[in-house]
Structure formats: C-alpha cells, structure tokens
Amino acid sequence: MSSVLRAWDGDAYHRLSTPMVDMAIPVLDRLALIDGESVLDAGCGSGRVTAFVVERNPHGRVVAVDADLSMVRAASETLGGTDAVVRQVDLLELDLPALELGVDAVDAVFSTATFHWIKDHDTLFRRLFGALVPGGRMEAQCGGGHNIERVHGVARQVAAKPEYRDALVDIEQVTNFYTPDQTEQRLRDAGFVDLKCWLEDVPVVSDDPVGYLSAIILGQHRERLGEEVGARYVREVADGLGYPGTVTFDYVRLNISARRPA
Ligand SMILES: C[S@@+](CC[C@H](N)C(=O)[O-])C[C@H]1O[C@@H](n2cnc3c(N)ncnc32)[C@H](O)[C@@H]1O
Fold first, then answer.
1. Model confidence over 8-47: pLDDT tens digits?
2. pTM of the model
3. What's the structural domain count of the chain?
4. Which of 6, 48, 172, 251 has the fewest C-beta atoms lying within 10 Å of its C-beta?
5. Is residue 5 situated within a structural domain?
6. 71 lines ligand 1 (CB under 6 A)
C-alpha cells in the first residue's frame, strides 16, 4: 500500500513555496556541500530548492526524488538544462541501485519540508541510511513539535461545522510532528551517529494566505470537499486566522543532522 498521504499540484506549489525555500536555505548552508559530491534531495517537490543544491554543486551528481507525479513533472521542468536527475520514488521504498543511475549511494542526503508528510519515520530513516556511503551525512528539516498547532486548531473548528463535518470527519491531519528525542532515538535505531536534532520557531507571514492554505496546508481538505465547498472551507479557515488582516503561520521546524558511520 502506498504511504503517500495526499496529491499535490506541482505548479501551484512552485508559485507558493517561497516560505519553504527561505526555510531550506539555512539547511543547505549546514550541508556545506563540496563541489563534486553526490547528493540526494529526498522529497524535492517542484525543484525550487533542488536548483540551489545544483547551483552549489555544479560538478556533482544531484538525484532528486519525490513520490508525487505532479511534483516530479514540475521538478523536471525546473531542473531541465541541469545534470540533476529527477525520479518518482516513494522514500519508504527508496533503493538507489534499483534506479540504475550509476549512483548506488550518495555522499549526502538533504531534505526539507518533507518528513512530516511521512508517517513511518523508522522505515524512512532506514532507507535514507541505506542510501548513504559510509561516512555520508544527512541534513534535514521538517515540521516538528507544535508545528502549525494554531492553524490546525482553526481548521478543526471549521471542519466541525455541519457543512463540512461529514466529508472531513475521518480526515487524517498530517501530524507527524515529532520531538528531537523521538527522532534521535529513531535515527540511532537506523544506525546513524553524530546526531543533533532541535526545534526552531519559524513564524511565516503569508502574502497569499488563502492560496497558501489551499495548495499547501489544507490541500487534503480542499480535495475532499471539491472545488466550490473546498474553497469556502479554506476561506473560513483563513478568516479564523485573521484574514484579510495579517496571517502568520506558526511553523515549528525540526532540524536533523546525522551521519552514517565510516
Ligand atoms: C512541502 S513539499 C516540500 C518540497 C521541497 N523539499 C521544498 O522544500 O520545497 C513535501 C514533498 O514531500 C513529498 N512526499 C511526501 N511523502 C513522500 C514519500 N513517501 N516519498 C517521497 N516524497 C514524498 C511530496 O510529494 C511533496 O513534494
């Protein structure tokens, strides 16, 4: 069974993902790429962040994978004209040799804004560990701790209204927001060493809260409700968050640094 929780609109994500790009750059700084290294971007989305990976590693091999076809198509377009390779892969089934790219293991794994979309972090970390060369490193960031608790609170309140209740009653909110301790334990179990995990508040003021909620945070809800009702639902959540005034998304990021033993 597929582990993928939702479908994405790669073009909409590409337009609206500036906050994700801003959050990703410090993670890429931490990765401190040395030109010529092989790098896996695990959950590359539409490739906006991957383009920076390529820019910082012009002579290296960049492999970008994502489970979503629309994202893979957008990333292929974004990265067209570069040597990066883009593949549709579920990270829980990641097996680099099977992709037959001539890259059986990478020097570095990089991932941003992706792990919290995946429930099974034990399998995820085992797969990523297996993708690294001995001594290879991983720098990642995803939602953690109390990530967007306020947004989810308002989304739940609005979802309880009679108009939306039946369609949303069993919706699986993405809440794979783990703590540093939980994550360090899972990384250790997968074989990683030199672990460092920490939370960071990153409040994001959105210039298009309705579009952002619709394409990114509440994509599953909108999909369930259909075009018209979904748009009304998203607008009500935005209103509950202060729209048309300033809307701030209460992002909390879990940073992850780890290494495969040499
Ligand atoms: C919010 S986007 C982040 C994209 C990009 N890393 C960025 O920072 O802009 C999350 C991505 O994770 C991908 N994703 C979710 N579950 C996945 C899985 N099991 N395997 C691979 N990709 C997955 C989604 O398809 C989506 O493109």
1. 999 999 999 999 999 999 999 999 999 999 999 999 999 9
2. 0.95
3. 1
4. 172
5. no
6. yes
DSSP code at position 214: I
Decide if 4 is inside a domain.
no
Phi, psi of 95 (to 5 degrees): -150, 90
Is the predicted pLDDT of residue 178 greater than 60, yes or no?
Answer: yes
* CA angle in degrees (0–180, nearest 5) for 65-126-201: 70
Q: Which among 58, 56, 90 has a CA at the least distance from the CA of 72?
A: 90
Tell me which of 53, 65, 66 to substitute to probe ligand 1's pocket, judged by most ligand atoms within 8 Å of the beta carbon: 66
- Give 170's pLDDT tier (boundaries 50, 70, 90): confident
Q: Is the pLDDT of residue 2 over 70?
A: no
Tell me if 114 CB under 6 Å of ligand 1: yes
Q: Is 4 in the pocket of ligand 1 (CB under 6 A)?
A: yes
* 44 ligand 1 Cβ < 6 A: yes
Range of the domain at 119: 10-145+176-204+250-259
168, part of any domain: no
Tell me if 183 sits within 8 A of 116, measured CB to CB.
no
Query: Is any atom of ligand 1 closer than 6 Å to the C-beta of 176?
Result: no
Report the separation in Å between the CA atom of 218 and the middle of ligand 1, taken as the mean of its atom positions: 15
- Exposed, middle or buried by CB within 10 Å (0-12, 13-18, 19+), for 172? exposed
The secondary element (H helix, E strand) that includes residue 23 is helix 18-31
User: From the CB of 163, is ligand 1 less than 6 Å away?
Assistant: no
Residue 88 resides in a domain: yes
Which CATH number does the domain housing residue 97 bear? 3.40.50.150
CA–CA distances in Å: residue 213 to residues 12, 15, 48, 248: 11, 13, 19, 11
The residues that bridge with 55 in the sheet, in sequence order, are: none
